[in-house]
## 1
Amino acid sequence: MKKLNYILLLGAGLLVGSSYFLWSSLQSKQEVLAEQLSEHKHTGKEQVLRDPLANQADGSASLPRANNHRLANPWESAPTVIGEAGQNDAVRTQGVESLAKMAEPEKEVVSAAELARRQKLQNLGYMVPTDYYTKDLKTLRQLAKAGDAYAMVHLGEKYAFELNGQTSNPEFEQGVDYAKAAKQSFKDALVAGNIRSAGIIAELYFQEQNVTEAYAWHLVSDQLGDDISANWFKRTEMAQQASAQVKQAAQTRANQIMSELKLSKKSG
């Protein structure tokens, strides 16, 4: 009986000792854990307060930032831009002016000879305004009837090159002699002051292989001062092979045209 009690007491003592040991171990671990948590919180607070954009621990530079700790615009960190507000505005203004200059088309440099040539073409009636080419046949006829020389020229061009023999053209009219109508329109333009029209009539007769009429209108063109058309005709085979008889007949016909249309030979 005493032996049994001794064993029970020994077991109870061992149980109490084990419990105390376990409790002490747990208490120590809790203290360590609490210290770690406290240290972690303290460290985390410092990390939050520390500028996240400061230089790195290894000494490398951080990203550029403005005074309010936001990431800076790359242009703001450029050496040519950093400075006072007025200086920044001046730099930006210079940049805008440079881009504007780059966008401006280069001005055409025209020689005195080219200016004279263009003026000559204008005076002779070669420079028909482009808006006439957008006008329909009815509008051109109305303008021509009102005395518009440019409308007469383009009307003659439409008759000769767009409508003559072009039955599929929506503006084609049955029963109209477009070859004759074209020459008449150019004659009207010539009387209205478009000197170039005489050379166009010469070309139309040239295409029809009517030597005398082509040569005669060439002479009219030359007498009126359109040496551009006159020089073109002189280089043609038709002009170079014209006989003396043809030239004489053409001269007589040219004098008749000048008289009928009341045209005056250019002096000088």
Note: The chain is about 65% helix and 0% strand.
## 2
Amino acid sequence: MIDVAHVLRRDADDSEKGLSLIELIVAMMVFSIIIVLVGTLYVTSQKVVQSSSVTSKDAGVASNVMNELTNVLRYGTVLPDPSNAQNTVAAFVSATPSSLVLYTYADSTGGTDSTATPKPVMVGFFLGADGTVTEKRWKFGATTPTAATVTSVAPNSTIKLGGPIIAPTTASPLAGVCQDPNATDAPVAPAATAGPNDVPPLFTYCDSNSPIAFASGAIPSASLQDISSVSVNISMNTGSSTGSRGIVLAGTIDMLNLGGKSGGS
């Protein structure tokens, strides 16, 4: 005859045993795997969001710099030569791979006097050691600002356009820069072009169909009057590894007042 009380006591003892050691280890392993997977997914998603945010910021800064350069360069102008009415003074005061200074009618009445006659201003763009592009403006007064003004006279306004922009590692332009596909004359190829790992100049200066060569780190004074367009290459590296280029914005700005081609970027 079955001892009902004994069976009930045995079932009660079995229910109080709980998990075995093996079952506990397996459960902990499964739980650990789930935690690792969830943690990895979270970290990855955070990196994607951060990278997207940095890329968006870099693109905004690059666009801001390019838009301001376009606005100023498009209205570049030569000046009458006060010593010879038959000649003109070149629009560019100085031109290097990472800076430029020119005369322009962009966004200004231009003068320090109270006359309503529009006057040009002298505007400079400079790539600093920290990668920030700074715009400086000098208004026309009793005398015309010159190259000496840049270092001897405080600008009337200074604006930091943004950065960091990677400093050029070579003075050689990108292949094909400055070439007009509609030109009938063959372009003069530069002595060397920037390689895939080089950071090309922030500014490359073009005549009608070819890049103008730098000499001692700048466009020679005699060649400043030949500039008719400027090729701009903005390489950003915010949040990227050293030497890498996360955002690259490039384009050629035609200066119609100086003989640039219409329809340029």
Note: The chain has one domain: 56-258.
## 3
Amino acid sequence: MFLQGYSTINWDKNITFITYNHLNLPRTITFSGTNKKIEYWYIADGVKVLQVNTDGTTVHTIDYIEEFVFENSAISYILHEEGRASIESGVFQYEFFIKDHLGNPPRRKSRPSFGRGSCLPVAHINFLKSRQV
């Protein structure tokens, strides 16, 4: 079923109803089952600032503050121009988006971690410099 060209029901994904805001962005997605839904909050220009996932009595929130993403009030990852830096066990893990010739990001490449701060050892930096042409 469609409303102004947008889907309002998707039985394949157990979505019983989708409501949209005045910017035609999804506001609430309701799933079949007991109180299972996703709510989205936007600022005036359509940038998503909050996502609330409810499954019964369990509530999971995701806050988007510019490039910082918080899950349940704890920082989850930081977006940057070339990928993201996620925090795992108190250490940043860097993931880079490898783009194809059209600029589409088809793959994600994780950089190996070398300990706290994730800096490359001097031996690796010297090897990389000697390989440049």
Note: Residues 2-131 form one domain.
